[in-house]
Design a protein that fits this description.
About 75% of the residues lie in helices and about 0% in strands. The protein has two helices and no strands. It has a domain at about 35-165.
């Protein structure tokens, strides 16, 4: 059986499309005779959509928003906690750094004081050695001076006799005459 283009058109549908009595009614939603059925279908569709949205979709959206708010709140709390921990860690690090600096400064001051004490001890020892050497040298000088001063009268007497012998020779010991040259004494 072959289908022709005339067979596909339903004569009843064509009559319904033209309206009652063969006239064209226009746009169906504006047809006043269909308002009651349109309002019923509108109400049924609205109630069905309302029930679907209020019972299924909106609770899921609400749960998602609630979960999101909880997640955000938890994340903010954790961030605040981590920030506090970081601040505590920074403060303890600053304290440790200040303590380390103070300890280093104390160690440096102790080392400096130790070195000053050692240097002072060495300097005192060197000064004591020098003072001992000076005292020893002064004692030797005093001894030599005392000996020299003790020998001065004997040397002076000997020198005086030598001079006297040269100036006036004694008759017992004739001394050869020496020629006196200018510039000799």
């Amino acid at each position: 059986m072959a289908v022709t283009p005339h067979d596909t058109v339903d004569p009843h549908a064509a009559a319904a499309a033209t309206g009652h009595g063969g006239e064209s009614a226009g746009f169906p939603p504006f047809d006043a005779s269909l308002f009651a059925s349109q309002l019923v279908w509108f109400a049924l569709t609205f109630i069905a959509l309302y029930l679907i949205l209020s019972r299924v979709v909106l609770p899921k959206i609400g749960a998602t928003l609630h979960n999101r708010a909880n997640t955000i709140s938890t994340d903010l709390d954790q961030a605040a906690q981590k920030s506090g921990e970081a601040e505590d860690a920074r403060a303890s690090m600053e304290k440790a750094k200040a303590k380390a600096r103070a300890d280093a400064r104390t160690m440096i001051e102790a080392a400096r004081a130790d070195m000053q004490a050692k240097l002072q001890a060495e300097q005192d020892a060197a000064e004591k050695r020098l003072a001992d050497r000076i005292t020893s040298a002064e004692a030797r000088i005093d001894t030599a001076r005392t000996k020299a001063l003790a020998d001065v009268p004997a040397e002076a007497a000997k020198l005086a006799r030598d001079i006297a012998d040269k100036v006036a020779p004694t008759s017992a010991s004739p001394a050869p005459r020496q020629r006196v040259v200018a510039g000799e004494a």
